[in-house]
């Protein structure tokens, strides 16, 4: 059975960088069993009702500005998979989860930056999924849980975001010094994830140290994909930290495996 993954997509520059983090994700894509398809929840697709893609072939969305011009030339022409999309629809219906289909949207950088590092040939079908920051963590977990049986069918479930993601607090000079508040928050989070302590995790905003800095109210869409990924492994509640580092003082580059 494939695990589910939470992968931090960092800054868009990862798409053109060669560093320890990009190398790790490149290798992870080679080490994992080859999936039949990837279901990916992206922090950059926010909707009030759960949406899933019904796209034959994706365009590439450049939902950022002011970066290296090379970024705007990258294409990731992944294809969709209607059979897997229908399975997801059935699972959502059985679990009472409202959803809508999307037939036009391409892959945003939260999706294609991660996918391109894992599967550079764009030869794995993708089902793109939205997230809803206005749901409670338990509701987000429930959506992931509804898809947990897909992992036994060689379908890889990925949630793309960032455990610490506060653009207003970044140090773009990146002197290598990690802000203590970011590390304290992430270490608290790691302990709760490893113990599968859902009560504490659902209340992270009031229990975790420096929660409002690490997960600012205006930017929680990057944190909440974690709950979708956890829910997808509810039938095997085990959390393993595969990689962690920080860039720009406090931007987390972490990979969590669930299941």
Task: Extract low-pLDDT stretches.
Answer: none
Terminal residue distance: 9 Å
| SSE pattern, N- to C-terminal | EHEEHEHEHEHHHHHEE
Q: What is the tally of helical segments?
A: 9
Strand neighbour order, sheet with most strands: 5-2-6-1-8-7
Radius of gyration of CA atoms, rounded to a whole number: 17 Å
Summarize model confidence as the mean pLDDT: 97
Please give a structural write-up.
With about 260 residues, this protein is α/β, with parallel strands linked by helices. About 30% of the residues lie in helices and about 20% in strands. It has helices at about 20-30, 80-95, 110-120, 135-145, 180-195, 200, 205, 210-215, 225-230; strands at about 5-10, 35-45, 50-55, 100, 125-130, 155-160, 240-245, 250-259. It contains nine helices and eight strands. The chain is globular and about 45 Å long. The mean pLDDT is about 95. The strands form two sheets. The protein has a six-stranded mixed β-sheet, sandwiched between helices.
Keywords:
single chain; 259 residues; alpha/beta; two-stranded parallel ribbon; globular
Short description:
With 259 residues, the chain is of the alpha/beta class. Helices cover 31% and strands 20% of the residues.
Outline the fold blueprint.
Layout: E1 4-8, H1 20-31, E2 37-46, E3 50-53, H2 82-94, E4 99-102, H3 109-118, E5 126-131, H4 137-146, E6 155-161, H5 180-194, H6 198-202, H7 204-207, H8 211-214, H9 225-231, E7 239-247, E8 251-258
Parallel strand pairs: 1-6, 2-5, 2-6, 3-4
Antiparallel strand pairs: 1-8, 7-8
């Amino acid at each position: 059975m494939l695990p589910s993954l939470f992968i931090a997509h960092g800054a868009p520059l990862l798409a053109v960088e060669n560093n320890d983090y990009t190398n790790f994700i490149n290798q992870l894509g080679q080490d994992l069993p080859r999936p039949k398809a990837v279901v990916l929840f992206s922090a950059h697709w926010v909707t009030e009702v759960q949406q899933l893609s019904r796209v034959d072939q994706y365009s590439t969305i450049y939902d950022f500005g002011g970066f290296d011009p090379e970024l705007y030339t990258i294409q990731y022409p992944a294809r969709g998979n209607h059979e897997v999309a229908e399975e997801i629809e059935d699972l959502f219906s059985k679990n009472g989860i409202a959803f809508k289909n999307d037939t036009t949207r391409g892959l945003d950088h939260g999706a294609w930056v991660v996918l391109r590092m894992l599967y550079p040939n764009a030869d794995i079908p993708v089902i793109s999924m939205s997230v809803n920051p206005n749901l409670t963590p338990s509701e987000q977990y429930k959506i992931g849980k509804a898809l947990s049986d897909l992992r036994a069918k060689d379908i890889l479930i990925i949630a793309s975001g960032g455990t610490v993601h506060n653009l207003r607090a970044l140090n773009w000079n990146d002197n290598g010094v990690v802000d203590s508040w970011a590390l304290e928050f992430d270490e608290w989070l790691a302990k709760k994830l490893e113990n599968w302590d859902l009560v504490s995790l659902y209340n992270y905003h009031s229990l975790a140290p420096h929660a409002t800095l690490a997960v600012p109210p205006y930017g929680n869409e990057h944190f909440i994909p974690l709950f979708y990924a956890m829910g997808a492994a509810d039938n095997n509640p085990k959390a393993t930290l595969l990689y962690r580092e920080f860039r720009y003082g406090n931007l987390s580059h972490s990979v969590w495996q669930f299941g």
